[in-house]
Write a structure and sequence with these properties.
Keywords: ATP-binding, Magnesium, Metal-binding, Nucleotide-binding, Nucleotidyltransferase, Toxin-antitoxin system, Transferase. It holds the Pfam family NTP_transf_2. Belongs to the MntA antitoxin family. The termini are far apart. This protein has about 130 residues and is of the alpha+beta class. The strands form two sheets. A four-stranded mixed sheet has the order 5-4-3-6. Strands 1-2 form a two-stranded antiparallel sheet. Helix 2 runs antiparallel to helix 4. Helix content is about 30%, strand content about 25%. The chain folds into two domains: about 30 residues, no CATH class; about 100 residues, Beta Polymerase, domain 2, CATH 3.30.460.10.
Length: about 130
Amino acid sequence: MLRDAVTTGTATTTATHESHAAPVQLTDRPIRTGRRVNMKPSVPFEQKRQDIRRIASRFPVVNPRVFGSVLHGDDTEGSDLDLLVDPLPGTTLFDLGGLQVALEDLLGVPVDLLTPGDLPPKFRSSVLAEALPV
């Protein structure tokens, strides 16, 4: 077995090489497997609200809010978590996609991350009025 650890900045990269070994994780970030936890999104949302705010603060967005089925209390195991954020100037789709992936990895449920501009005009005012801070 060969094990190398390289420190670059604040991230540590570790690679393990062994025949018949499991997939190698090359970052401190969990490997995305596509597996989701079979639960209502409201469960991890309530358990990890502080973590959601902490992760969102690492991206160029402010004012994370929840809306939709989780807010109304009618989410099911097949529901996603609807979150709304206000992008700061210069925010890119890569930033928003990165935040969405980070939140899905944290929570284990699908996350629909939107900005006010993403909301259909027909529903925008009602969603903005009902959305509550994370």
